[in-house]
User: What shape does this take?
Amino acid sequence: MEGTTRPTFARAGKVLCTRGPCRRVGRLSSIGGPPPVVPDCRGGPKVKKVAFPCPAGEYPVWVGADSRAAVAKAVEELAPSAVYLVADRTAWEYHGTEFAGLGETFLFEPGEGSKTISVWSSILEWLAERRADRKSLLIAFGGGVAADLGGFVAATYMRGISHLNVATTLLAQVDAALGGKTGLDLPQGKNLVGAFHHPIGVACDPRFLLTLPERQLRNGMAEVVKYACVFDPSLFEELQSGEGSALASGVAFFESVCLRCIEHKAAVVREDPEDRLGKRALLNFGHTVGHAIEAALGYSGIYHGEAVAIGMVVETWVGERMGMTESGLTERLRELLLEWRLPVGLDGRCRIEDVVERLFLDKKAEGGRIALVIPARVGHAEIVSGVSAELIEEGLRAL
Assistant: This one.
């Protein structure tokens, strides 16, 4: 691969590294209402299961400790010809031992820089070299990048194979690993290459979150704030009560937050599984501006959730200026994000002109017209098309 050392494969450890030294490792919704949440005996009494909708019906999302047992049972029931794992290197070093016995593993470097055509094609070649077939199962292991990258590999290898997501970050557990969206980035914009390809299951173990750096946790909290602002006034109020006490409650807090966010997303996807009716676009609050910020920065120096946090403030500010958002909501949102130590403005990170230029490559833009998700108030948002780039630029400069 360009810019990397030649990949090597460690047979004994069954781990492929894309670059660098190779290490061996051991083997409540506003739309439609929430789906049922029931105990799932596969992972023991601590695992709950949410039935997540997809065009073919539904698939399970396991939330709780011992999700490894749920994954193993799902693999056993599917009886694939072989299992292959595509894993974030850092996540694998922390948690891979539990899953290593399931199959051979391709490790990629953490971060948005791995969501490229180059890494994607390397994984496809790796699968082909191992004679993976249409009955093979791919497990995407890691955060949002793993879900996007692994899911797109599964969508495109032999025109589609089954895959399962093991989500190890808060951002992935509440959003990125769910719903079937997969994709790669181009230099011109984020997720410009992609496909809908739903997993057969998603495992969300809140214990994994306890190993995350603080900044990564806060990165995921931006998506939680998104759900609160668009769908859940009570969650918004709870988050305003202070991040210190919430984080101190550890696993219990994250499990509760994950379940609530998963339920909200499931309700939206049930109504609009492939983003054809516009309802699913509500989940993109903050993402139009956020994605443009990520692209303007070359996908480095800022996390996805941090960019979305800035995007939410800008898009709410635009709503207030257009008279569509209740007065004072921008400041309330800004204060909440600051409480969670998330950024609320560009602060000189990049040229505002570069951000504005990339707004026109957003997937919701049509005919040069920019569409934003605008919150009218906490718990209710609308998709507004025809927003002027000049107004968004004004918001970026004002904040």
In short: Residues 196 and 338 are 34 Å apart (CA to CA). The longest strand covers residues 189-196. DSSP finds 14 helices and 14 strands in the chain. The domain at 8-210 is CATH 3.40.50.1970 (Rossmann fold).
